[in-house]
Automatic annotation (TrEMBL), chain A:
Residues 84-217 form the MacB-like periplasmic core domain. Coiled coil: none annotated. The lineage of its organism: Bacteria, Pseudomonadati, Planctomycetota, Planctomycetia, Planctomycetales. The chain crosses the membrane at residues 20-40, 315-333, 361-383. PANTHER family: ABC TRANSPORTER PERMEASE YTRF, MEMBRANE COMPONENT OF TRANSPORTER-RELATED. This is MacB-like periplasmic core domain protein. It comes from Gimesia aquarii. InterPro entries: MacB_PCD, Macrolide_Exporter_MacB. One of its GO terms (cellular component) is plasma membrane.
UniProtKB/TrEMBL annotation, chain B:
GO terms for molecular function: metal ion binding. This is High-affinity zinc uptake system binding-protein ZnuA. Belongs to the bacterial solute-binding protein 9 family. The keyword Signal applies. Pfam families: ZnuA (PF01297). Residues 172-199 form a coiled coil. InterPro entries: Bact_metal-bind_prot9 (IPR050492), ZnuA-like (IPR006127). One of its GO terms (biological process) is metal ion transport. It comes from Gimesia aquarii.
Length: 392, 317
């Protein structure tokens, strides 16, 4: 048997190009269904886990998928805003804890999530380094953001302007990184969390600037009379919140009118959940209240329908690859007819010659399987990130 | 074989250490959790909570003595204490800057103003200012000094009691009994104000800034706000405004939150405006408590009105 192995290995090594081509052919035909299966399983698990841990989501009427994906995965679906009034309404019903989310801005490409401290408790997120959010201008970053941007507590992180050509638009805010979250293998790892009020400052609803009073420079004033001092647009606004200027930050308008993207609604019990769903399940309601798990199941049903097409495709590819391989081997056998005759004349039995051919096939298939396994292991390790990168 | 024994012993040692650490941690947590903490934003709320609960609940008014509870901002250590507390009772209506500038767990915050929604007084030109590209605008504001009307303070107390009973069910009995006592005490203040309302109907006075609206509404009195800056002497324009209002309404006196400068008192006296201090009690009084201090101040106000024959003047009008 040793002789058969040695001869096969020597033959395969001698015909490197042919061997590599065959191994790659088999590997690629096996890899597609395996990776697809892994990917879909990962996708299903991720979606289900996050959706199951989020009882209800409220948002503006419109795409249910966008609402769920933006609230759970922080994808930028550009949801229509709702106001804080809705949060207060849910709070006052006494049926649930509303956790507002504002998902509109980014900081160096990472999504900024404006929320309240309740979110961290709800998702069971703990701070690995530094502290939680304390005051306006603070941010807590996910583990991946910290690694990608090389940030640690005490560093500053600038929010991205929505439109660089809009000079009257929102001002980027230089946020203070106060904490880094422990890795949770969830979209929270890729997010930058700020207090809702900080998000409103980024949006330009609130800001801080120097005191405007009788002592203010005349160049900065539009009007000065005994009752009021009115400044002009030249008054510089602070682009970061410090201990010195914190007191000057203020908001324009009533907080209940300020915008948010959606609300995670955590009912206190089953009865409250049903009552809440009933309250919003009327035509007059401007909001939709949905169970994310239902939406995720719908989404997965669509994915599985698409997967069926992939399965048929995979089957056809597998048949064609097998036929191709069979052809390659048959041609190879024909080419090696003289080689076999020589071996037979040297005293090799027909069975040994067939064993040699069979071992060759085994080596190629075996090497392909090892390759597929290695790629699958690597894919499984990074499947979560890959799926999030591809789909969210 | 020896290796196996060694491994088993080590395993049990490690397990017992881990268990000990867990127990210690649990004990520490239990100790910390033994005394529930309630944080409040001003003295009237501190008074309400302390009146309602027993010593089993710790009430923290984080504002240090001498600091203004409306503008005070806490340091990092205090922020942590506030965030880790069991309940944060805020006044609402933008009272206390720190509530607007800190990250607070919404689930732990009780805004008492929500329970008084129908009774709130809003002022359209609370603060006028302008900057940026949007031109001048006024900030509509809600007057935050609810506790100056005992009826509203009762509503605040009821809201606080309700929340306390939900959070600390073991305190239910104490809270129920104390709430009744508190309501009785506040009823006395209400009656006193009703007496003053009857005796001094249609009274008008000046105040330095918008503070006493709820007190005025309770008694059907009118208050004219001068918007004089704290710690700053009034300028010519301020006096001019006072003169205009004085000529129009013949206002006999001015209420001050704190004792004013003697010189200022004399100047006002010359213009026919007497001065009296009426502390809105946003901070703890040096003597007594909210009820006793309010009673004392109302008696003092009554005496002042009698001495200055204001009752007679108003009745003439």
């Amino acid at each position: 048997m040793n002789g058969i192995f040695r001869l096969t290995v020597r033959y395969l090594l001698y015909n490197k190009f042919k061997t590599i081509t065959l191994i790659l052919c088999v590997t690629l035909s096996l890899l597609l269904p395996v990776v697809l299966q892994f990917g879909i399983t990962q996708f299903e698990q991720e979606l289900h886990f996050r959706a199951r841990s989020t009882p209800l989501i409220a948002g503006a009427k419109g795409s249910r998928f966008d609402l769920v994906l933006e609230s759970i995965y922080f994808s930028q679906g550009k949801l229509e805003s709702i106001s804080m009034k809705e949060v207060e309404f849910i709070e006052q019903t006494g049926y649930a804890l509303p956790i507002p989310l504002a998902v509109r801005f980014t900081a160096q490409g990472s999504q900024i999530i404006g929320t309240t401290l309740d979110y961290f408790e709800f998702r069971d997120l703990s701070v690995a380094e530094g502290t939680s959010l304390k005051r306006l201008g603070d941010c807590v970053i996910g583990a991946n953001v910290a690694e990608k941007l090389q940030l640690k507590p005490g560093d500053r992180l600038m929010s991205d302007p929505l439109n660089v050509f809009d000079l009257s638009g929102n001002y980027p805010l230089k946020m203070l990184v106060v904490g880094v979250l422990e890795e949770s293998n969830s979209p929270d790892d890729d997010a930058v969390f700020v207090d809702l009020k900080t998000e409103w400052i980024i949006a330009g609803i609130g800001h801080g600037h120097q005191k405007i009073n009788v002592e203010t420079d005349k160049d900065l004033l539009l009007k000065r009379d005994p009752q009021r001092t009115v400044a002009n647009a030249a008054v510089p606004q602070f682009n970061e919140v410090t201990e010195e200027n914190l007191a000057s930050f203020h908001f324009h308008g009533q907080a209940e009118t300020f915008p948010i993207s959606s609300i995670i609604v955590v009912p206190f019990d089953e009865k409250s959940e049903v009552l809440l769903l009933g309250m919003y399940d009327v035509e007059q309601s401007t909001l939709q209240l949905i169970r994310p798990i239902v939406i995720v199941d719908e989404l997965l049903a669509m994915v599985f329908r698409v997967k069926k097409l992939f399965d048929v495709n995979t089957l056809l590819v597998a048949i064609s690859t097998t036929l191709l391989l069979a052809l390659v081997f048959l041609l190879s056998l024909r080419l090696r007819k003289r080689e076999r005759q020589t071996m037979f004349q040297l005293g090799c039995s027909r069975a040994t010659i067939w064993k040699l051919q069979f071992t060759e096939v085994l080596f190629i298939v075996g090497a392909s399987l090892v390759l597929v396994l290695m790629v699958a292991i690597v894919f499984q390790m990074y499947a979560s990130q890959v799926m999030r990168f591809l789909f969210f | 074989m020896q290796h196996i024994y060694l491994f088993v012993v080590l395993f049990f040692l490690m397990m017992s250490c881990a268990c000990q650490q867990d127990t210690q941690r649990e004990n520490n947590n239990a100790r910390n959790k033994q005394t529930p903490v309630v944080v409040v934003v001003n003295y009237p709320l501190e008074f309400i909570v302390e009146f309602l609960v027993g010593p089993e609940i710790r009430v923290i008014n984080p504002v240090p003595s001498g600091a203004d509870p409306e503008t005070w901002l806490p340091n990092d250590a205090m922020i942590q204490t506030i965030q880790e507390s069991d309940l944060i009772i805020t006044n609402g209506a933008d009272f206390a800057d720190w509530v607007k500038k800190l990250s607070l767990p919404r689930s732990k915050v009780l805004r008492t103003s929500l329970y008084l929604k129908d009774s709130l007084i809003t002022v359209s030109d609370f603060e006028v200012h302008s900057h940026g590209t949007k031109g001048a605008h006024s900030h509509a504001g809600t007057v935050a000094f609810f506790w100056l009307d005992p009826a509203l303070m009762i509503k605040q107390a009821e809201a606080v009691a309700q929340k306390l009973m939900v959070l600390f069910p073991q305190e239910k009995k104490t809270v129920t009994v104390n709430l009744k006592k508190l309501k009785d005490s506040l009823e006395v203040l209400k009656q006193k104000l009703d007496q003053l309302k009857t005796k001094y109907a249609g009274l008008q006075w000046f105040s330095q800034r918008p503070v006493y609206q709820y007190l005025a509404r309770r008694t059907d009195w009118s208050v004219h706000h001068l918007h004089w800056k704290k710690h700053l002497s009034p300028d010519d324009n301020d006096w001019k405004k006072l003169k205009t209002v004085q000529e129009e309404h013949q206002i006999p006196f001015m209420l001050w939150e704190q004792k004013p400068d003697e010189k200022l008192v004399k100047e006002l006296q010359q213009r026919g405006v007497a001065s009296i201090v009426f502390d809105p009690l946003t901070v703890k009084p040096t003597q007594g408590d909210y009820i006793s201090e309010m009673q004392r101040q109302l008696n003092q106000l009554e005496q002042f009105l009698t001495q200055h024959s204001i009752a007679l003047d108003t009745s003439k009008k």
